[in-house]
Structures are given as C-alpha cells and as structure tokens.
Amino acid sequence: MAFDINKIRNDFPILKQQVYNKPFVYFDNAATTQKPLKVIERMNKVYRETNSNIHRGVHYLSDITTRDFEHARETIRSFINAKHDHEIIFTPGTTSGINLVAFSFGEKFVSEGDEILISALEHHANIVPWQMLCKRKGAKLRVIPMNDDGELILDEYEKLLSSRTRIVAVTHVANSIGTVNPVKHIIKSAHRLGVPVLVDGAQAVQHGRVDVQELGADFYVFSGHKMYGPTGIGALYGREEILEELPPYQTGGEMVDQVTFEETTFNRLPFKFEAGTPNYIGAIGMAAAVEYLQETGLEEVAVHEKDLLDYGTGRLSEFEELVFFGRAKEKISVLSFVLEDIHPYDAGMVIDKYGIAVRTGTHCAQPVMDRFGIRGTIRASLAFYNTREEIDRLCQAIRKVIQMFK
Ligand code: PMP
C-alpha cells in the first residue's frame, strides 16, 4: 500500500483540532503517541459488545474476550517475531516489564559482589529498578559511557563485561536524543560470556521492524501507548528457557495452579507472570495498533520519519543560536536541542502558544543531561503522521522565541 499522509492524518481524529486557534501540531510522540480510529473503535467494540473477564468464565462473552486476548498475544508475538506466544507477557508498560525482570531475575541470579551493566543513555525506567536491586543485594551498577555525539563507547563496554556481570540492560533507542544503539552487537558480546541482555524497546518498535530472535535478545520490553495503542498496557518478551527459570513477580489470582493455605503451585507461562485480571481490553487495543502499523507499512514509516528527521535537522541547523544534543550516526525520530541561554521551559511555553506540542526538560534521563552539562533540552519527537510543513511551523515558532528572549 502506498504511504498516503492525508489518509493517515485522517485516521487520527485528535490531529484535526485547533489549539489557541491554530492547527494543532503534535511533536511529543516519544512521550506518547496519538491513537488511530482503528484502535479506539476496536476497544469501544469490546466495551460495547463483548466485555467479560477472561480465562475463567464458561459463558459466551468470556469465551469471545479470552480468544481476542490470546489472539492479541499472538499478534504481538508475530510483530517482534518471538518463537512462542507464551514468551509474551502482558504488563502495564515498559516500566513494569523492567521491574518484573529486575525483581524476578535479581531474586534468583544476583548476589553480593555481582555487577549489573546499563548504559549512559538510559531512561530512568531502566536505571532505578536495577539500582534498587543492587542496593537489595549488595551488587554494583556499572555504566557503559557515551561520547559527545551520544553514542555508546563499545570498547569501554567490552572492558566492563566480566565474569561478575549478571545481566546487561540497554535501551534500543534513546528517548532523550534518539541514538539507536547497536543492540545486536551488544547482545553478541554479552552472550560470549553467557550474560543475558534486556533491551528497552519503548522507543524502537514504533519506528521500524524489530526481530527479537534476530537480535538474540533475552528480554525485550515495550509500551502500547508509544506505538499508537492504549495506555496501561505493554509487553515483556522473554526467551522461554530463561522465563521458565524465573520465580513469579507479583502473585495472586490467574498466576496459580493449586492453592492451599500451606502451599501454592504456579501456572505455566505466560500466566505465571500475569497475576490478577490483565488489561485485556488494552491488549486487544495494542494488537489493533500493531495491525494498523503493519497495514501502514513499517518500512514506509521508517522512510517517512527519516525524511522528517533529515529535513528537521537541516531546517533547525539554520538557527545560529541552536545547539543539538545527540548527533549519533544511527539516530531516529528525535530532535533534541537548546537555544543558547534561553531556558528550555520558557521556549516550550512560547512554542505551545503557536499550537505546537514539544517536550522540555530532562525527558526522564537526568544522567544524559548531566553528561552534557545541561539542565534539559527542547525535544521535538516525530511520528509518521507528522509533516515537513509542521516542522516549518516549529521553525517559525522558534524564530519568535529567539526574538522574544534576546
Ligand atoms: N524507556 C524508554 C526509552 C522510554 O522512552 C520510556 C517512556 N518515556 C520508558 C522506558 C517508560 O515507559 P512507560 O512510561 O510506558 O512505562
């Protein structure tokens, strides 16, 4: 199917509105994406026609919803090319997926003196759970450094890997500055020492094809709301062999087999990790978002977004006052910059008045800002429904910001 930007924009009702009497421009896609009608209507249909709790009813509607939920799991499996459906655990999102692994893997495999390796580019969600684990166990958090362009220094990574390393946790794409990390290479090096790798895919799956088997990832986590699906749902992929070995994270209904007051046995995968009523309507909505992305064409999405990134980089470079952060050779969908000594928050407030949503601040990545010695950036994060005209509008607003504050 040809990539038709007008049709695509029509699929997203929220984009049609005016903000401050100006056509709305949404450049905060790394925080959350907007939802196509296909997703909204699919979830509506469940609420209106088939809603029933899953896996436990023998009745008609429960049966339909259970099938739709398990079909959603299969859709997510095929989206990232996992081997088995039961390797897909539904979670409330990326943060929950990382916490699950940090807790469960940490409980079983991490002890005093061990090391956990993360990178300088992580979102707080892929720092704090590991930090807490290290505190609980007396383990040490080590960090792969980055260079001034925002690329991880792989030689340093190789040096940090050792017999003490228990797990490596890295982001696929950095939300703050858009660097695409060479995760396949990172995984290969870790596997040479038998160390498993968790990849934070929150900013990756919506921008191009991800194949967890091809990457060799042991764990891969992402959120529905950042890939045109609903909030409150996400997925954790884990290789069967490793998931089988992990103890449960949260406990309660659904994740059990036999329960007595003395003893409990646990359900098989994936249910062992899905305690309580899962967000089944969220999962069905997330699967609809996957279908929408696949119908649009992930290759076409990547081409359009690359064009926007190149165009935006070129247009913004015209401002002498503008300094980019993140100049990695492999980079997607994020324009992160400051305007000389204008506070990013002041700039964001003015840009907002032109009907343009950007994010300002540290983007939940304070160590990235510290590395660059800045208090934050202005971040325009792109999606496939954005256009070159919208980038031109952003440039006009930036011109006003500079005029106003200089
Ligand atoms: N990791 C990255 C790279 C992110 O961009 C985000 C969200 N900004 C998260 C993790 C956390 O995702 P969520 O809030 O959906 O759990």
Q: In short, what is this structure?
A:
By secondary structure, the protein is an alpha/beta fold. It contains 14 helices and 17 strands. It is globular, with a radius of gyration of 22 Å.
Q: Please, could you describe this protein's structure?
A:
With 406 residues, the protein is α/β, with parallel strands linked by helices. The chain has 2 domains: 135 residues, Aspartate Aminotransferase, domain 1 (Alpha-Beta Complex), CATH 3.90.1150.10; 255 residues, Aspartate Aminotransferase, domain 2 (3-Layer(aba) Sandwich). Helix content is 41%, strand content 17%. It has 14 helices and 17 strands. A 7-stranded mixed sheet has the order 4-10-9-8-7-5-6, sandwiched between helices. Strands 13-14-17-16 form a 4-stranded antiparallel sheet, covered by helices on one side. Strand 1 and strand 2 form a beta hairpin. Helix 2 runs antiparallel to helix 10, helix 11 runs parallel beside helix 14 and helix 12 crosses helix 14. The longest helix is centred in the first third of the chain and has 20 residues. The protein is globular. The termini are far apart. The relative contact order is 0.17. The mean pLDDT is 97. The structure holds 4'-deoxy-4'-aminopyridoxal-5'-phosphate. The site of 4'-deoxy-4'-aminopyridoxal-5'-phosphate (PMP) has 14 residues, from helix 4.
Characteristic terms for this protein:
4-stranded antiparallel sheet; Aspartate Aminotransferase, domain 1; Aspartate Aminotransferase, domain 2; alpha/beta; binds 4'-deoxy-4'-aminopyridoxal-5'-phosphate; 406 residues
